[in-house]
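note to self: dont lose this again. the chain is below, predicted strucutre after it. 197 aa total, dont forget to put it in the shared folder this time
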Amino acid sequence: MVRVFAYCRVSTFEQSTENQVREIRAAGFNIESRRVVAEVVSGSVAASRRQGFAKLHDRLEAGDVLVVTKLDRLGRNAMDVRMTVEDLQQSGVRVHCLALGGADLTSAAGKMTMSVLSAVAEFERDLLLERTAAGLARAKDAGKTLGRPRALSAKQEGLVRDRLVQGDAVAAIARDLNTSRQTIMRARKRVLASLAS
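---
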């Protein structure tokens, strides 16, 4: 006999998984309450790192069916979903997603759908990387300073150099400039590098 499980997830305690359970049952999946796994965890957490999903994964056996309402319930992105589905498929578990017409993601059509989704996700990621690189290049060409702003002005940096050369303590300099010891230590490192060259 085929056992059917449902995995339902919400991101915050203000939300409820009740609608997901209703949607799965309305789609014709007769799932016993003890086989509904619901958890509150951010979608940014990979499925393999979710406590509820990990326990469910341990319960699943070859021939079982896992139903989710949407792909994002199952993973944080297309790659995570694909890895999760492939892992379940290797264990002999079929995965159905209602948002994709109840498609079995482990079937030939489901695998094709997953491949298309993965390709689109990879394309979007590549576009984002290209746009980021182009934006950084434009900012650099415009003379903007990239990265973290310096903690000390050029004048303060000179003051730190003079006081370090005089032998003042790092903690005293940091206190006088109202900054952290780490900032002064980084400045000291730059001073030593400039003196060595």
